C-alpha cells in the first residue's frame, strides 16, 4: 500500500538516542511518560501500513531511519525553565519565569522570600498593613541575607496615608531592594516614580539601566498605560526640586517606561476588579505594543499573568496566551513559610472553587473598594458588608438604632463602641494622628475608623489563629485556591512555596508538550498531571 504521507524527512541530526512516537492515532501508554520527560526531543512518525488497535510502538531514531518512516513533526524539549520569557529570566537573574506575589500583612513573609530566592525564584515581601518599623526591620534583614539573589518588596498605593507610601518607598531605596512590586495604584504617585527613576544610568552599551526594577500590578488598561509610558514631567520636576532625584536621573526617566514588567491581574484573591484573564491579557498585549511603537522603545515591556493560577492547566494557558511570566499569590498561604495560623490554613485547604465572595476592603473602606475572600467557614464577609451598609446609611455611630448598636457590640466588636474607639484612637495616635484630628470634626470618619478596626483585626486574628475569633477570619483568596486544592489533593501535607512553584511549572511544561503532540495527530486521552509532594520526589 502506498503511503498517504509526504516524502519522509528527519529534522536535525539522526541521533539514535532520540525516541520517536510511531503511528500518532494509536500511541501506546508510554507516550505520556515520554512527553512528561520535558527535556527529551521527540519526533512523531506514522506507519505506512495499518497497525493493530492495540497500540503503536516507540522506536529509537536509528530504527525510524532504517524503516524510512514518514515524519509528521517534532515535539521539542520544553522544560519548566524554558516557559515564558528568557529576557525576564535574564533581567531578574532567575531560573523560572515565575513570581511568588506579595500578600499583605507579611503573610508573604521573610521566610517565604528567602526560600524562593535561594531556589532562583523571584518573590516579594508583603508590606501592606504593616508598621513602617516592621517593614524596615524585615527589609534590612532580607537585604543582608539575600545580596545578589532575586527578591523584592511590595509598595502598596495608600491614598489615605500618602506619607506612609512615600516613607515605604524611601526605605526600599535606602536598603537597595532590587525589585519593587507596585500594587493597587490607580495613578502614578511621586513615591512609585521615585522608585522607578532612582539610580537610572547608562550602561557601557549606552542603554538605560535600572537600579530598581518595578513590577506594576494592574487590571485596567488606563492604569497600565501610565506604567508603560515614561514618567510624567511634572512629577519628575517635583522630585528633582525635593532633592529625591538628580537631574540626570530625571532626564533618563523621560526615555523609558515607568515599569519594564507589568503583571496583568485577572480575577484574584484580595483586591480585584474581577476581570477574566482571558479577556484582559490580550488587551494589555495590544496596548503594550501600541505604546512601544508610540515611544520607540528599544526593548519590549514584559507582561506577566496573575489571578486564577492554581493548576498546571491555568499556568500553561497563561503562557499560551502570551504571558512572559506568571505570578501566584493566595495559594502560597498554604505553605509553611506563610505567616498565617494553622487554623487559617486548615480553612483554606478545605475550599473548593465556589467558596469565595467579596467584602469591603479595610484600606479603602470609605470609597467602597472590595476584596475577594473565603466565604466557607467564616462570617467575616457578611459582617463586613453589614458594617459598610450602616456606614453608607448613617452620618455617625450615634445614628445607629439600639438594635444595631447591640448587634455591633455583642456580635461583631465583642466590646462597647467606646472601648473600640479607645483602641482605635491609640492605634492612629501612633500611625497617623491626622486621622484623629479629622475624626474629631467628622462623625462619619470616626465611624469609618471604628468599623475599619474590625476589618483590620480580622486579618490579625487569622494570622495569629485567635481561636475565639475563628468565625471572623478574613482570608484573601479566590477560585484558584479551590482549583489548587482539588488538583493537589488532601495528602500533600504542607507544601513548600518552592514545591508549589516547581509542580505548577513542571506540569505546565508537560501539558505544553502534550498539546504539541496532539496538534501533530497524537490522539489519546492522557492521564492527568499529578502533583508530586516533596516526600514523593
UniProtKB/TrEMBL annotation:
Residues 394-473 form the [Acyl-carrier-protein] S-malonyltransferase-like inserted helical domain. This is PfaD family polyunsaturated fatty acid/polyketide biosynthesis protein. It comes from Nocardia fusca.
Amino acid at each position: 500500500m502506498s503511503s498517504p504521507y509526504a516524502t519522509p524527512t528527519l529534522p536535525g541530526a539522526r541521533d539514535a538516542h532520540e525516541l520517536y512516537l510511531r503511528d500518532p492515532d494509536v500511541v501506546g501508554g508510554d507516550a505520556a511518560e515520554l512527553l512528561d520527560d520535558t527535556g527529551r526531543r521527540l519526533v512523531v512518525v506514522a506507519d505506512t501500513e495499518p497497525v493493530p488497535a492495540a497500540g503503536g510502538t516507540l522506536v529509537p531514531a536509528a530504527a525510524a531511519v532504517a524503516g524510512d518512516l514518514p515524519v509528521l513533526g517534532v515535539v521539542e524539549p520544553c522544560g519548566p525553565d524554558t516557559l515564558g520569557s528568557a529576557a525576564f529570566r535574564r533581567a531578574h537573574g532567575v531560573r523560572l519565569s515565575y513570581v511568588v506575589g506579595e500578600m499583605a500583612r507579611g503573610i508573604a513573609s521573610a521566610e517565604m522570600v528567602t526560600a524562593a530566592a535561594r531556589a532562583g525564584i523571584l518573590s516579594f515581601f508583603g508590606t501592606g498593613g504593616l508598621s513602617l518599623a516592621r517593614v524596615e526591620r524585615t527589609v534590612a534583614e532580607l537585604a543582608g541575607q539575600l545580596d545578589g539573589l532575586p527578591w523584592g518588596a511590595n509598595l502598596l498605593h495608600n491614598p489615605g496615608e500618602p506619607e506612609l507610601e512615600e516613607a515605604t518607598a524611601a526605605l526600599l531605596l535606602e536598603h537597595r531592594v532590587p525589585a519593587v512590586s507596585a500594587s493597587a495604584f490607580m495613578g502614578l504617585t511621586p513615591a512609585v516614580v521615585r522608585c522607578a527613576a532612582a539610580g537610572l544610568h547608562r550602561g557601557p552599551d549606552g542603554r538605560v539601566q535600572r537600579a530598581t526594577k518595578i513590577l506594576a500590578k494592574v487590571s485596567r488598561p488606563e492604569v497600565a498605560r501610565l506604567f508603560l509610558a515614561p514618567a510624567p514631567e511634572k512629577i519628575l520636576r517635583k522630585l528633582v526640586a525635593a532633592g529625591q532625584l538628580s537631574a540626570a536621573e530625571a532626564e533618563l526617566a523621560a526615555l523609558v517606561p515607568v515599569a519594564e514588567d507589568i503583571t496583568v491581574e485577572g480575577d484574584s484573591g484580595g483586591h480585584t476588579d474581577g476581570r477574566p484573564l482571558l479577556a484582559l491579557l490580550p488587551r494589555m498585549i495590544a496596548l503594550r505594543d501600541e505604546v512601544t511603537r508610540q515611544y520607540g522603545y528599544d526593548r519590549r515591556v514584559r507582561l506577566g499573568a496573575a489571578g486564577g493560577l492554581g493548576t498546571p492547566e491555568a499556568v500553561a494557558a497563561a503562557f499560551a496566551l502570551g504571558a512572559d511570566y506568571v505570578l501566584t499569590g493566595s495559594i502560597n498561604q498554604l505553605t509553611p513559610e506563610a505567616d498565617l495560623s494553622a487554623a487559617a490554613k486548615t480553612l483554606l485547604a478545605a475550599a473548593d472553587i465556589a467558596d469565595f465572595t467579596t467584602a469591603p476592603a479595610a484600606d479603602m473602606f470609605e470609597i467602597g473598594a472590595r476584596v475577594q475572600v473565603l466565604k466557607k467557614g467564616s462570617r467575616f464577609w457578611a459582617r463586613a458588608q453589614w458594617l459598610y451598609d450602616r456606614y453608607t446609611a448613617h452620618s455617625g455611630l450615634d445614628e445607629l438604632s439600639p438594635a444595631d448598636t447591640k448587634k455591633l457590640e455583642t456580635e461583631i466588636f465583642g466590646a462597647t463602641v467606646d472601648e473600640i474607639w479607645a483602641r482605635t484612637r491609640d492605634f492612629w495616635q501612633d500611625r497617623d494622628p491626622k486621622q484623629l484630628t479629622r475624626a474629631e470634626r467628622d462623625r462619619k470618619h470616626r465611624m469609618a475608623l471604628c468599623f475599619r478596626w474590625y476589618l483590620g483585626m480580622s486579618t490579625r486574628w487569622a494570622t495569629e489563629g485567635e481561636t475565639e475569633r475563628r468565625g471572623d477570619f478574613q482570608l484573601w483568596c479566590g477560585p484558584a485556591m479551590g482549583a489548587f486544592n482539588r488538583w493537589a489533593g488532601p495528602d500533600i501535607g504542607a507544601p513548600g512555596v518552592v514545591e508549589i512553584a516547581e509542580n505548577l511549572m513542571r506540569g505546565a511544561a508537560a501539558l505544553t508538550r502534550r498539546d504539541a503532540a496532539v496538534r501533530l495527530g497524537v490522539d489519546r486521552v492522557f492521564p492527568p498531571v499529578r502533583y508530586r509532594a516533596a516526600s514523593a520526589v
